[in-house]
Design goal:
Mean pLDDT: 74
Radius of gyration: 32 Å
Helix content: 55-70%
Structural class: alpha+beta
Oligomer: single chain
Shape: elongated
């Protein structure tokens, strides 16, 4: 799609000329998410998380300046097994010439022997082999602090959203989206076997903020549209919320693409050149989290919010008013599409967009001599929603003109006769 066509598409979504039914297909989106949840849950149950040495504790050896890295995994594991007496070791290549070996914790004497054997095996000086020991208590402390930070984050976010949007249901929908994002991201780590490090934890917390930001932007537009819908009774809550998602869709896509491109570049460089490390751990969490967060903001948070609000007595009454208004609108001369939510006049000009989810095919009729103003076709002799029977009594923006003002405009005051003097 060219830039001009994409811009036109985005403009059509914003104005309501085109509409994608996000809210009306909540079951479909939940089914997709449920399938993802089953897959990642299986990964967590079968493979589990590959926790880094920072969380499990152990010895970390790094052999720098290796000229021949062929078979480095078997060589390193052979040394650890023969000298250290450990049959399992996590071996990775960093930066193309540094071999990293992670094993269970060795005592000082045993660690020195393993360092010397690694130096001999890879043909480097003993001074080029560094070793460090990480205790499990440090990893437990990091995990505890991370969980505390997550708990405080969720509590503060819930309070903020409930106060800002004046309803707990928006806070609940946003938290469901956050849980959706973090669970799928962690599950993908389990499926890929990628090592979870403190950098990964930072990435997990970061994507929560990004997902929340995208959701709040959509919710802000939802609040604007639904406030207007409640005031004029021309759209149901779901229709107004769906219009908000369509209006912010292009913005969400653009924001996500701009954020994903540099992260993807770091991710590719980390896999191909840099190797395992902080940048790779962080970029993988960000890439998966941003992509999943964009999906949840569009397909999960708002449809779930609309589903919750539609069960309120006030929203049920709004639905009756809106559907009654739209039925009269279609009967008077508009063409209402349940797919696009668009009402068009006889000349083809688009009027105020509305959408009836699940209403089936659109009702079509011919506009009479009465003109349409703001999507309302008023025939001669009929009264509109404001009690006016003049089909031309509307401003260019669709607001009704008071009868006294219309009469004065049509019958200008007579000029007083000039004095004979």
């Amino acid at each position: 799609m060219s830039a001009n066509r994409f811009a036109t598409f985005g403009n059509d979504l914003y104005t309501g000329k085109r509409s994608i039914d996000f809210v009306g297909r909540l079951r479909r989106w939940l089914t997709i998410s449920a399938v993802l949840f089953v897959i990642v849950t299986a990964g967590l149950a079968i493979r589990g998380l590959n926790l880094g040495i920072e969380f499990t504790g152990g010895s970390d050896f790094r052999v720098a300046g290796v000229s021949d890295t062929s078979g480095y995994v078997d060589k390193a594991r052979g040394v650890v097994s023969e000298v250290g007496g450990v049959s399992d070791a996590n071996v990775t290549l960093i930066g193309g010439d540094t071999v990293r070996v992670e094993t269970q914790r060795f005592e000082d004497r045993r660690a020195q022997d393993v360092s010397a054997a690694l130096a001999k095996t890879f043909g480097v000086p003993v001074g080029d082999v560094s070793s460090s020991v990480v205790g499990p208590s440090w990893g437990a402390s990091v995990s505890q602090k991370a969980l505390q930070a997550l708990a405080w984050f969720l509590v503060l976010v819930s309070v903020l959203l409930a106060v800002y949007f004046r309803t707990w249901k928006m806070a609940f929908a946003a938290l469901v989206a956050l849980f959706h994002d973090i669970f799928i991201t962690v599950g993908i780590y389990a499926l890929s076997g990628f090592e979870v490090t403190p950098a990964s934890m930072i990435g997990f917390l970061t994507i929560l903020g990004y997902s929340l930001y995208d959701t709040v932007v959509v919710f802000d537009k939802v609040r604007e549209n639904t406030t207007e819908a409640v005031a004029n009774g021309r759209r149901t809550y779901s229709q107004a919320a769906n219009l908000a998602v369509n209006q912010t869709l292009v913005r969400s896509i653009n924001t996500s693409v701009v954020a994903l491109l540099p992260v993807a570049a770091i991710l590719v460089m980390g896999f191909t050149v840099i190797g395992p490390g902080t940048l790779l751990d962080l970029s993988l969490a960000l890439f998966v989290g941003i992509a999943v967060g964009t999906y949840s903001s569009i397909f999960i948070a708002t449809p779930l919010l609309a589903w919750l609000r539609e069960r309120e007595p006030g929203m049920k009454e709004l639905r009756k008013r809106a559907l009654h208004y739209q039925e009269r609108l279609a009967a008077r001369g508009g063409e209402t599409s349940a797919t696009t939510g668009q009402i068009a006049t006889a000349s083809g000009a688009a009027a105020s967009p509305v959408q009836v989810f699940g209403a089936g095919a659109a009702a079509t009729s011919t506009i009479s001599a009465g003109s349409a103003r703001s999507g309302v076709a008023v025939q001669s002799g009929e009264r509109d929603d404001h009690g006016y029977d003049d089909p031309e009594g509307y401003t260019a923006t669709g607001r009704p003109i008071h009868p006294s003002l219309r009469e004065s405009a049509r019958t200008p005051g007579k000029k007083k006769p000039r004095s004979p003097r």
